[in-house]
Every structure is written in C-alpha cells, then in structure tokens.
Amino acid sequence: MKRTMENTIPEKFRDFKSKFTVYAPGRINLIGEHTDYNNGFVLPTAIDKTIKLQFASNSTPYSCNIYSKTYGKSFSFDLRKISRREEQWENYILGVVNEIQKRGKYPEGFDCIIESDLPVGAGISSSAALESGIAFGLNELFDLDLSRQTIAELSRDAEHNYVGTKCGIMDQYASVLSKEGHLILLDCRSLEATYIPANFKHHKLLLLNTMVSHSLATSEYNTRRKECEEAVNHINQRYPEVRSLRDINLKRLVEFRDSLPEVLYKRAHFVISENDRVLKAVEAIRREDLGQFGLLMYDSHKGLRDNYEVSCKELDFLVDLTTDYEPVKGARMMGGGFGGCTINLIEENAVEDFIKIASEAYQKEFNVKPEAIVVSPEKGTHLRK
Ligand code: GLA
Predict the structure, then answer these.
(1) Given the CA of residue 221, which atom of ligand 1 is nearest to it?
(2) Which domain holds residue 238?
(3) Catalytic option among 36, 111, 157, 171
(4) CATH number of domain containing 252
(5) Is the pTM of this model over 0.90?
(6) How far, in Å, CA of 374 to CA of 205, rounded?
C-alpha cells in the first residue's frame, strides 16, 4: 500500500468522538525464529512503537467505518457481509471481525481511526499489531469477554484465513501479552509463558532496517512451513510419537541423513538447533552472560542463512559488519526473513558510533540508508480513555 499525501478526513469521520484509544505494539524477537509453527520456543517482547487505534461505537447494528490516517485511506463494511477484499490491509481487519464472529461473539457498528508509527514490512509485525489492536478494541467496546490469549489466537487465525500467511502465534502473543522490561519465553506448544527480566546491563537493542520490504515473502514462508511438515511426516513413519520438530533431537535426526531429502534435512536441522539455542539463550541472560548470548545470536543467523535459507544479502551484510566491531555482542536477522531488520545487542555508549559506521557502509554498498531504531521491552496492547 502506498502512502498518500492526501489527508483530508473522510465525511463519515467529521464528527468522530473517540471513546478510547488502543495502543498495539510491534514486537522484536531475541532468538527463536521459525520455531513457533513447529511447536517450539521463542523469546519475543513488545516494543515502544505502536499502532494507535481510536474507537467509538456508531449506534448502528452493522455499519463499520475504518480510516487510516497514516495512509489517507478509508473503507466501510457491513457486519453481516464480511468477505475477503482486494486491499490486503482491509483483510487484516475484516479477518479479525470474522474470527470474532466465528467464536459466537457479535460486535455492533463501530468507527475506528488508525495511525501507525510501525514501519510496514520491516519484520516488527505491524500486521499482528493491527489485528490484535482491532480485536482488543472491539472486545472492550462491546464487552465480548475475550481473554488476551484468545485475542492473540484469533488474530493469528485471521492472518491464516484472510491474509494467507500461515504464521505461528509469536507475533500476536508478544504484541498482546508482553510485560515491560521482560522477554517472553513462550512454549508454542502449551502456550506456557515465562517472563524473563531483560537484564542487558549497559547494552541496548538496536534494529537496523535493510529497507528491503519482506512483504513478498508470504509464499516462501508458507513453503518453509510445508517443508517442516513434510520432514515430520517422514520421521513419523519410524517414530510415530514425533508430531512436530519439537519432538526430536539432533541425535535422532542424524538417523535420517540419507533418507530425508537434503532440503528437508537442513530445515529440520535448523529448527531443532534453534529450539536448543532459545533455551541456552535464556540461561545466558539469567547468568548475565551477554557474550554467550551474543554467540547464540550469530549461530541463529548462520542457521537462518545456510540451512533455513530465509536471509538475503542485505541482512547478511549488516550482520557481517558487526563481527569485527567489538561493542556488538551479537547480531542476526529477525522475523520471517527476506528483508526487514537485523537485531543487534550493543554496548550503549557505542550506539551512535555504530549507527554511523553501519549507515555509511550500507549506503555505499546498496545506495540506501538503513533505518536505525533503538528499542526496549515494553508492555503489550493497552488502552487509554
Ligand atoms: C513471522 C511470523 C511468526 C514467526 C516469524 C519467524 O514474523 O508471523 O509467526 O514464524 O515470522 O520466526
């Protein structure tokens, strides 16, 4: 979707009086990529960049009006006739309303103004923020009695059924259920969450946006998911108890070295190793061993690049840059891949210097200025009256 300069308020919103505003944050993930839909572990948290959604009911039974201030675009729909549309951003919203209705809950007519400071396609989950922000607001506006976990789950389902990305639960869960100053160690099989204090003494988390939008990556993402399922189906013939890559370790995977096609072997190898890395990373953070944590980040990147094959030259360039730069303890690509951001754990007094070095080098190589965003762990979706 292109941003337009046109920003005149549509007719239907001239008298809009918001009842409350929902702040739906983007997320980062420290480690544990492509493990969520394999029933594994992830370590995400929400950040201070949000989508702001102002809500009001409009006293009609079925009419809904949405206006994106950021894009200068609006659309309307009838709650009795919800179906997928051409414009993808509309589908995030329609999908959520549809999933709420599927759960036997019925919002009434409402108006909503959306404004975002989350870059789209940067791998910090503007889509999950939009989905869960809509669900959170409707839950509040119409007393739907949906738990935070249900909001996360139905938002993920909206993405599967209306947008077409067969994503895991990580982004929506982090956006809705994060706690300030903490990371979530989420077991994506049981949805048991352990909140880990983010003790990064004298260090910052810095995102470098390649400015390569990953929005074309949906088909590759779905392919990866299918490849993992194929690997499981194969292994399952010998070990029926294996239902997901979570249920097997590297030692056992080696037994399938010859029978599994090379690509599937590499995918499985990455996912199993990445799950181990998440648990090791949590131990390292608890011990305040940031050096060890940084090494795990680099290993994660290598696996994503070589075995899972979801990186790109721009991401690799930004990660490689850091290896000779001592104040960066660890760096890796973050999120689904094929563009978006790298995440760097860096000594706080080196942040400015490093942004300068990285920007100059990246610009020289790719003729584009990378965006630098310093982030910190923040609370999940919340509202203000
Ligand atoms: C995207 C998906 C998540 C997760 C990550 C990769 O952000 O939405 O569910 O799979 O990619 O870790």
Answers:
(1) 11
(2) 203-376
(3) 171
(4) 3.30.70.890
(5) yes
(6) 6
Give pLDDT tens digits for 194-253: 999 998 999 999 999 999 986 656 889 999 999 999 999 999 999 999 999 999 999 999
Query: Is 188 in the same domain as 310?
Result: no
How far is the centre of ligand 1, averaged over its atoms, from the C-alpha of 6 (Å)?
Answer: 33
Catalytic residue check, 143: no
Together in a domain, 110 and 257: no
145 and 238 co-located in one domain:
no
Residues 326 and 183 in one domain: no
Angle between helix axes 148-158 and 88-102 (nearest 10 degrees) is: 130
Instruction: Verify that 132 and 207 share a domain, yes or no.
Output: no
C-alpha 256/C-alpha 258 separation (Å) is 6
352 domain-assigned: yes
* Separation of alpha carbons 335 and 315, rounded Å: 12
The side-by-side arrangement of strands in the sheet containing 371-375 is 328-333, 341-347, 203-209, 371-375
Question: Ligand 1 atom 2: the closest Cα is on which residue?
Answer: 167
Q: Residues of 276-306 as b/e, b for ≥16 C-beta within 10 angstroms?
A: ebbbbbbebbeeeebebbbbbbbbbbbbbbe
How far is the C-alpha of 130 from the C-alpha of 92, rounded, in Å? 7
Radius of gyration for the alpha carbons in the chain, expressed in angstroms and rounded: 21
β pairing state of 110-116 and 44-57: antiparallel
| Residue linked to tokens 């899972």 | 308
37 lines ligand 1 (CB under 6 A): yes
Number of structural domains in the chain: 2
Token digits for 51? 């989508």
Q: What is the pLDDT of residues 268-310, one digit of tens each?
A: 999 999 999 999 999 999 999 999 999 999 999 999 999 999 9
